[in-house]
Recover the amino acids of this structure.
């Protein structure tokens, strides 16, 4: 469904990605873990077209989308819930969801809204509340819900657990599992919380300094002594 081949990109003279190869099959949850500065967010942003790849390809369902503008990439069935949530703080929850649906078919809006609010009942209670007044966990739910309103085939999630309390983190990961299991959305998940991410994922990759250093099933990576030493021991929550 999503394939990255030899991808290189960066910012000005700073190269952040060095020949990254990753694939995400239809129906999978694939996670990418790594330390701060490893290039995880840059990879997601490059998939979305900003920054542009300096080399390599991004394929979505077999189609080369590497050089397409971002808005056309989104129309191909990709959606992105960014790091830091980035909800529209002065807009209501409903208005944020309407923004997420802007690239979709308006005929499906009511159906998509009902489906999304069934996943996020807390947002249903706050439809007329401004996004900036929500708690951190609620804002993260809104960011994911907004991305789902475009009916994506592939959902990119960037650090959905960042800054959240452990109980809220568990709830967010339960919702991610339901989006994949019950709605058939393919998910590429970038996370620093390696324990929860690898426990959830079918497969995973480990990124170090802009390169993929390890890959395997979620269970294999959880059991890997090197992964445990660098990302798990003392950090399981």
């Amino acid at each position: 469904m999503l394939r990255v081949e030899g991808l290189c990109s960066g910012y000005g003279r700073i190269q952040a990605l060095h020949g990254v190869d990753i694939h995400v099959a239809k129906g999978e949850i694939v996670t990418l873990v790594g330390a701060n500065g490893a290039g995880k967010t840059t990879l997601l942003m490059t998939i979305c077209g900003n920054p542009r790849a300096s080399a390599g390809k991004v394929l979505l369902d077999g189609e080369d989308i590497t050089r397409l503008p971002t808005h056309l990439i989104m129309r191909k069935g990709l959606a992105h819930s960014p790091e830091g949530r980035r909800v529209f703080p002065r807009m209501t929850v409903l208005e944020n969801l309407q923004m997420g649906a802007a690239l979709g078919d308006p005929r499906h809006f009511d159906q998509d809204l009902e489906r999304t609010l069934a996943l996020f009942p807390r947002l249903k209670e706050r439809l007329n509340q401004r996004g900036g007044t929500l708690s951190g966990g609620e804002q993260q739910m809104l960011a994911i819900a907004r991305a789902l309103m475009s009916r994506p085939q592939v959902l990119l999630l960037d650090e959905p657990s960042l800054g959240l309390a452990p109980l809220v983190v568990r709830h967010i990961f339960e919702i991610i599992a339901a989006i994949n299991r019950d709605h058939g959305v393919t998910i590429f998940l970038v996370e620093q919380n390696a324990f929860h991410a690898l426990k959830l994922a079918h497969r995973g990759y480990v990124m170090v300094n802009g390169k993929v250093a390890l890959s395997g099933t979620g269970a294999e990576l959880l059991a890997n002594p090197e992964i445990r030493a660098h990302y798990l021991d003392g950090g399981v929550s």
In short: The chain has ten helices and ten strands. The longest helix spans residues 166-183. The domain at 2-232 is CATH 3.40.50.300 (Rossmann fold). The chain has one domain: 2-232.
